[in-house]
């Protein structure tokens, strides 16, 4: 009969976990279940200076869920089998306080049952098991076991024995990054003890260890007085899921008296009725590391290393066995979960994951440039239950990986999710292919333009980047950089306002290049030449307008001085023409009444471009001509456009594959959100659109003398 205290504790824990997972904190239920659980489990007394149970639970919930509005940060649902695994950790602490003899019997039973079940499930006969939290720790223990086996006096002499015969650990180049370095660090061995074996370069898979080369390396090490110690092989490489030739590798290890350790996701398929012979060979190896947690969707369960060795003393020396109850109880969460799932449940989960993808069960789809990063992010967002991620492979570079054996059980991936993944790939890959094909064309077009610089950034998945360079050479470096920054900032703003499907940005967040414009994904009908010509044309207009704006202050100052001089000269000519008497107010009025003076208005136009005053006679004709030219220049492109045809699109090229709701906008949505375009300050002055300011000065003789102090009124107005 079950211990009532133990049963009650399990019920309270299960109810408390459901409350926490719901994200809706309920004070009454929390007090009822968690207070009872904490009293039974922790045996703690909360003093007046401590916090109450409700406050602690509220804190835990806030840490778990954070902002409830951000659903992406919510904890994924944990099923009943997950609750069993979590309950195992709590039970382990409770069991550890039992009477010593009862504890010994219980831990022995749990350890032996779990080991027996795992050995039968994964066809590993007469094996022992080591349970560990870090999935690399089992391999470290196997290395220690191999060292103790080959160096008989290692327990007493230590590393002095290793100096006489240097041990060597061999691993495939396709192993997970940093594994060999971690081994050397944990074992206290120099990195020279690690030998990386390349994969096949001429025959076979690029992800399988080169057996012939390994044989040669081992013979060379033996001849140089070294000791080949251990070989690490893969049954499912981390990146592409390929399995090494384990049978042949086992023969080599037997020949040279080496330890053979195997790890990889394909080991999960050993529980199936039909298993490939390459994976079945792993059951004959000296040790294998299993990770049932992700395979079965079990949270917080340990990894397991199954091994065969006949000397218990050496196993003890290597740290594979322990007398500590807590270490023995590491298997308890797995013990509970395996019983809950049963053989059929375990088989069903792994079989379902294996059927979601073709062999091998971990598939990486390569794309030849770093647009895979964008592709992977988009697939993960649009098909979240697919579990795809982005990996770096030594030969292929960046790839999108789909490994349902590692993700399907936890995410609940179904066949419709895989179908949605394939559909999204069919939409996105053509866009990436077109972009790749046009990248070189875009680069060539940019390099032909003296005013543009091509920006190479491998982290950008689009066409590439450009920078409009200022053509003025009479400025110092600081002023030139400031002008380049202003031109490219305005140019980016103008490009973003164009009626086009192309995406323009100031580049990746951590781009080293500054003052750049990056162009996003391309489609089949893109006109690269027109795109580059438009960038140059708009950039040139902005540059010329900027020069005018920068010179305006000096031009206006000189114009004012010239206007003052001409007004002064005009006043002197007026005085000479009309005489002194007409300048006296009363006398001048009488003279003007008897003998009026025919005054004429002389206008002046102020040319900002040249900084001089001209006659106003040609103003209207010049202005009319300017309006005519502006109307002719307004299209900015001589390309004939058809109804509905957007900028930079060639008519009839791939028209069926591109629309306003095409996959281009969907694919670029991820870096539209992350790319931050710096906006122009609202207080900055707009560049004038006309290059002439017309200033008309009255220079005719008036009926009355101009009062003193008002003769420069027009000049003040100009100021």
Automatic annotation (TrEMBL):
<keyword id="KW-0175">Coiled coil</keyword>
<feature type="region of interest" description="Disordered">
    <location>
        <begin position="699"/>
        <end position="719"/>
    </location>
</feature>
<dbReference type="Pfam" id="PF22930">
    <property type="entry name" value="PDXDC1-like_cen"/>
</dbReference>
<feature type="coiled-coil region">
    <location>
        <begin position="553"/>
        <end position="580"/>
    </location>
</feature>
<feature type="region of interest" description="Disordered">
    <location>
        <begin position="649"/>
        <end position="670"/>
    </location>
</feature>
<protein>
    <recommendedName>
        <fullName>Pyridoxal-dependent decarboxylase domain-containing protein 1</fullName>
    </recommendedName>
</protein>
<dbReference type="InterPro" id="IPR055103">
    <property type="entry name" value="PDXDC1-like_2nd"/>
</dbReference>
<dbReference type="GO" id="GO:0019752">
    <property type="term" value="P:carboxylic acid metabolic process"/>
</dbReference>
<dbReference type="InterPro" id="IPR050477">
    <property type="entry name" value="GrpII_AminoAcid_Decarb"/>
</dbReference>
<dbReference type="InterPro" id="IPR015421">
    <property type="entry name" value="PyrdxlP-dep_Trfase_major"/>
</dbReference>
<keyword id="KW-0663">Pyridoxal phosphate</keyword>
<keyword id="KW-0456">Lyase</keyword>
<dbReference type="Pfam" id="PF22937">
    <property type="entry name" value="PDXDC1-like_cen2"/>
</dbReference>
<feature type="compositionally biased region" description="Acidic residues">
    <location>
        <begin position="710"/>
        <end position="719"/>
    </location>
</feature>
<dbReference type="GO" id="GO:0030170">
    <property type="term" value="F:pyridoxal phosphate binding"/>
</dbReference>
<feature type="compositionally biased region" description="Low complexity">
    <location>
        <begin position="655"/>
        <end position="665"/>
    </location>
</feature>
<keyword id="KW-0210">Decarboxylase</keyword>
<feature type="domain" description="PDXDC1-like third">
    <location>
        <begin position="442"/>
        <end position="547"/>
    </location>
</feature>
<dbReference type="Pfam" id="PF00282">
    <property type="entry name" value="Pyridoxal_deC"/>
</dbReference>
<dbReference type="InterPro" id="IPR002129">
    <property type="entry name" value="PyrdxlP-dep_de-COase"/>
</dbReference>
<dbReference type="InterPro" id="IPR055102">
    <property type="entry name" value="PDXDC1-like_3rd"/>
</dbReference>
<dbReference type="InterPro" id="IPR015424">
    <property type="entry name" value="PyrdxlP-dep_Trfase"/>
</dbReference>
<feature type="domain" description="PDXDC1/PDXD2 second">
    <location>
        <begin position="375"/>
        <end position="436"/>
    </location>
</feature>
<dbReference type="GO" id="GO:0016831">
    <property type="term" value="F:carboxy-lyase activity"/>
</dbReference>
<comment type="similarity">
    <text>Belongs to the group II decarboxylase family.</text>
</comment>
